[in-house]
């Protein structure tokens, strides 16, 4: 399995079956398509591959406000590779790609750059300068250029189309169950633990900190608020905890998104580790408090609520949490 930032070198190119799209969430519809990509590749002796874009095109143009991202790039890549896709090409969505004529994108990027012999897109896929490229153009070009085109069918859940937009809507209102049905797995977020401002430690609730959105991005996470969570990656056992994801309005003004996770009854060093936070139930939305005392009281209440949901009893004596990230 290989992940490329941009196009491969000439020596790295392989005749490929390529699915093209943003694949935010890698939901059941995406997974069904990627299974078909593998079948098409096997039948034709091609390498099953995915072409995706970073940042999200809507993020690049900054149109319509912030883009609610379901997946971190780390999660998206791992979910795609988990389906058996062998190659992922992450194309930098920049001004050059945004302005490239649609036919040039097909000829220079897909055919010459990736050696795509079979390709799949959704019926609403648009590409190229001024979004002039369409499924109809790809079908027309396939009559004279050496590739096959497959337009992916719609995948349904409860008589409605499974889409990243529907998952975003479910996550926005805290409906993790509905989101999980469309994702085919519990909703989670994975990232590297980074240093924070140590405020959680000061309040008695040290946290593992992750940045769910790259600095300078126009994106935002698809979830906000406080959640009961399970934490994977701190050893063999799955840990329980409470997490807040937002912009910390009580103590910060920089607008930076942060996922802060307090792990119950755990001690150890986690800086630099890759940790997965699985969201179990939303407790409340993000709120600006009058000060640190009110914030601490809310965290204590949230922690007790999360413990009840997760079925983990508070120990009789406080467990020292040395080594937790601030």
From TrEMBL:
Catalytic activity: FMN + ATP + H(+) = FAD + diphosphate; riboflavin + ATP = FMN + ADP + H(+)
Keywords for this protein: ATP-binding, FAD, Flavoprotein, FMN, Kinase, Multifunctional enzyme, Nucleotide-binding, Nucleotidyltransferase, Transferase
UniProt-listed Gene3D superfamilies: HUPs (3.40.50.620), Riboflavin kinase-like (2.40.30.30)
Record's protein name: Riboflavin biosynthesis protein
Native source organism of the sequence: Sutterella wadsworthensis 2_1_59BFAA
Record has Zinc as a keyword: no
Homology family: Belongs to the ribF family.
Pfam family, one: Flavokinase
Pathway: Cofactor biosynthesis; FAD biosynthesis; FAD from FMN: step 1/1; Cofactor biosynthesis; FMN biosynthesis; FMN from riboflavin (ATP route): step 1/1
Keyword ATP-binding included in the entry's annotation: yes
Role: Catalyzes the phosphorylation of riboflavin to FMN followed by the adenylation of FMN to FAD.
InterPro entries: FAD_synthase (IPR015864), Riboflavin_kinase (IPR023468), Riboflavin_kinase_bac (IPR002606), Riboflavin_kinase_bac/euk (IPR015865), Riboflavin_kinase_dom_sf (IPR023465), Rossmann-like_a/b/a_fold (IPR014729)
UniProt-recorded Gene Ontology molecular function terms: ATP binding; FMN adenylyltransferase activity; riboflavin kinase activity
Chain ranges of the Riboflavin kinase domain: 182-311
């Amino acid at each position: 399995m290989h992940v490329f930032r941009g196009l491969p070198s000439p020596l790295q190119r392989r005749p490929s079956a390529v699915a093209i799209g943003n694949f935010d969430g890698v939901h059941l519809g995406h997974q069904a398509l990627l299974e078909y990509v593998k079948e098409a590749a096997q039948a034709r002796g091609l390498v099953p591959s995915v072409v995706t874009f970073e940042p999200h095109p809507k993020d690049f143009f900054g149109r319509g406000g912030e883009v609610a991202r379901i997946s971190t790039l780390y999660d998206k890549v791992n979910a795609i590779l988990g389906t058996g896709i062998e190659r992922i090409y992450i194309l930098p969505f920049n001004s050059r790609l945004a302005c490239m004529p649609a036919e040039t994108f097909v000829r220079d990027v897909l055919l010459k750059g990736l050696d795509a012999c079979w390709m799949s897109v959704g019926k609403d896929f648009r590409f190229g300068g001024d979004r002039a490229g369409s499924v109809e153009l790809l079908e027309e070009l396939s009559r004279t250029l050496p590739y096959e085109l497959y337009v992916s069918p719609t995948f349904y859940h409860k008589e409605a189309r499974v889409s990243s937009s529907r998952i975003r809507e479910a996550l926005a209102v805290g409906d993790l169950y509905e989101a999980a049905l469309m994702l085919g797995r519990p909703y989670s977020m994975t990232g590297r633990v980074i240093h924070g401002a140590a405020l959680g430690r000061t309040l008695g609730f040290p946290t593992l900190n992750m940045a769910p959105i790259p600095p300078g991005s126009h994106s935002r996470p698809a979830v906000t608020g406080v959640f009961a969570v399970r934490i994977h990656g701190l050893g063999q056992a799955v840990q329980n905890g409470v997490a807040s994801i937002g912009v910390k309005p009580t103590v910060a003004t920089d607008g930076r998104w942060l996922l802060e996770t307090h792990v119950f009854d755990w001690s150890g060093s986690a800086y630099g580790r890759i940790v997965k936070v699985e969201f179990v139930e939303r407790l409340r939305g993000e709120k600006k408090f009058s000060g640190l005392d009110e914030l601490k009281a809310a965290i204590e209440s949230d922690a007790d609520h999360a413990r009840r949901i997760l079925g983990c009893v508070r120990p009789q004596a406080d467990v020292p949490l040395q080594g937790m990230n601030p």
